[in-house]
C-alpha cells in the first residue's frame, strides 16, 4: 500500500502474537511498515500473516530480545519503532486473597513480564533506535493511572511502566521519542500468572461470562458501547509512531480507555450513561 502513515518504517512488537500487539502489528503493516513480532507462543506466531517476521522468545530473556532486534535488522535493514507490549494480568487478585508465598511468586512473574520485559526490550533496541532517530510506543493501561484495573500487582506493574516511559523519554532524548497508549479493557486472550494457576484464563472468556449473565458492560469496559476489540485501539499507536504527525511528541501517553478518568468504570445506573 502507498500513502500509509508508516511507509518505509520498520517496527518490532513484543507480545504481537495475540490481542492488541497483534492488532498493532497488522495495522502497522497496513500503514506501510515492515513488522517483526516477538512472542513466546509458537501457535500465535504461526497465525501471523506471511511477511511478518515471527521470532519466538520470552521478554524476560535479554538474549531473546537481542536476537529479535538482530533478526529484525537483518531482515529489514533497520529498526524505527519498538512496541513493548507483552504482558499478563493478575485477574484482580487482592492482597487479602493471597498468601505471602503466592504474592511473592506472582510478584516476580507479573513484574518479570510486565516491567522487566519492557526494560529489557528497550535495552536491546535503543542502539538501533538511536541510529534511525526512531521511537518507542509502549502499551500502558488504565491501570497505569487508576485503581481497580486489576489487583495490586498488576496496578503497580503498570504504574511502573509509566515511570519507565518517562525516564526513557528523558534518557533517550533527543534521539528517540518515547510515548505510550493507555488502553482500557479489550477482548483479548490476556492471561494470568502461572504461579497462581491462572495461565489458562483469558480475559475474553471473562467478558463472555459477564455478557451472558446480562451485565450491560463486560468487566473492565468503562463507557464505550462499542470498541472492545483490540483493533479499535490501534489508531493512537499509529499516530505516536508517525514521524510526520508526532515528531515533536515525547514522554506522552494517549489514554484510549473510554474515559475512565472522567466517568469511572461503570455507567451510572439510570444516570448520565447515554
Ligand atoms: N486486554 C486488556 O483489557 C488490556 C487493557 C489494558 C492494557 N492491556 C495490556 O495490553 C498488553 C497486551 O495484552 P493483551 O490484552 O493483548 O493480551 P494477549 O494475551 O492477547 O496478548 C499478549 C501476548 O503477549 C505474549 N506474552 C505473554 N508473556 C510473554 C513473555 N513472557 N514473553 C513473550 N511473550 C509473552 C502472549 O503469548 C500473547 O501473545 C499487556 O501489556 C496488557 O497489560 C490489556
Automatic annotation (TrEMBL):
Its EC number is 1.3.1.87. The keyword Oxidoreductase applies. Keywords: Oxidoreductase. The keyword Oxidoreductase applies. SUPFAM superfamilies: NAD(P)-binding Rossmann-fold domains. NCBIfam families: PRK06200.1. This is 3-(Cis-5,6-dihydroxycyclohexa-1, 3-dien-1-yl)propanoate dehydrogenase. It comes from Streptomyces phyllanthi.
Amino acid at each position: 500500500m502507498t500513502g500509509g502513515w508508516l511507509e518505509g518504517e520498520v517496527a518490532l512488537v513484543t507480545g504481537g502474537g495475540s490481542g492488541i500487539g497483534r492488532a498493532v502489528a497488522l495495522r502497522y503493516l497496513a500503514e506501510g511498515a515492515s513488522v517483526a513480532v516477538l512472542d513466546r507462543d509458537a501457535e500465535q506466531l504461526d497465525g501471523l500473516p506471511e511477511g511478518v517476521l515471527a521470532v519466538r522468545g520470552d521478554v524476560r530473556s535479554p538474549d531473546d530480545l537481542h536476537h529479535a532486534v538482530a533478526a529484525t535488522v537483518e531482515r529489514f535493514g533497520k529498526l524505527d519503532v519498538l512496541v513493548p507490549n507483552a504482558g499478563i494480568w493478575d485477574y484482580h487478585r487482592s492482597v487479602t486473597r493471597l498468601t505471602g508465598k503466592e504474592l511473592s511468586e506472582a510478584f516476580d512473574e507479573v513484574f518479570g513480564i510486565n516491567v522487566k520485559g519492557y526494560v529489557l526490550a528497550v535495552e536491546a533496541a535503543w542502539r538501533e533506535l538511536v541510529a534511525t532517530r526512531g521511537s518507542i510506543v509502549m502499551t500502558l493501561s488504565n491501570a497505569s493511572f487508576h485503581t481497580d484495573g486489576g489487583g495490586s500487582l498488576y496496578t503497580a506493574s503498570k504504574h511502573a511502566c509509566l515511570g519507565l516511559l518517562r525516564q526513557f523519554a528523558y534518557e533517550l532524548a533527543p534521539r528517540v521519542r518515547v510515548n505510550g497508549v493507555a488502553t482500557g479493557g479489550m477482548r483479548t486472550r490476556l492471561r494470568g500468572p502461572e504461579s497462581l494457576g491462572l495461565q489458562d484464563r483469558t480475559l475474553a472468556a471473562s467478558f463472555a461470562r459477564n455478557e451472558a449473565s446480562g451485565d450491560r458492560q463486560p468487566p473492565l469496559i468503562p463507557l464505550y458501547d462499542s470498541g472492545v476489540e483490540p483493533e479499535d485501539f490501534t489508531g493512537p499507536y499509529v499516530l505516536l509512531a508517525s514521524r510526520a504527525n508526532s515528531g515533536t511528541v515525547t514522554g506522552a501517553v494517549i489514554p484510549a480507555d473510554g474515559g475512565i478518568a472522567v466517568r469511572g468504570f461503570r455507567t451510572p445506573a439510570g444516570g448520565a450513561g447515554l
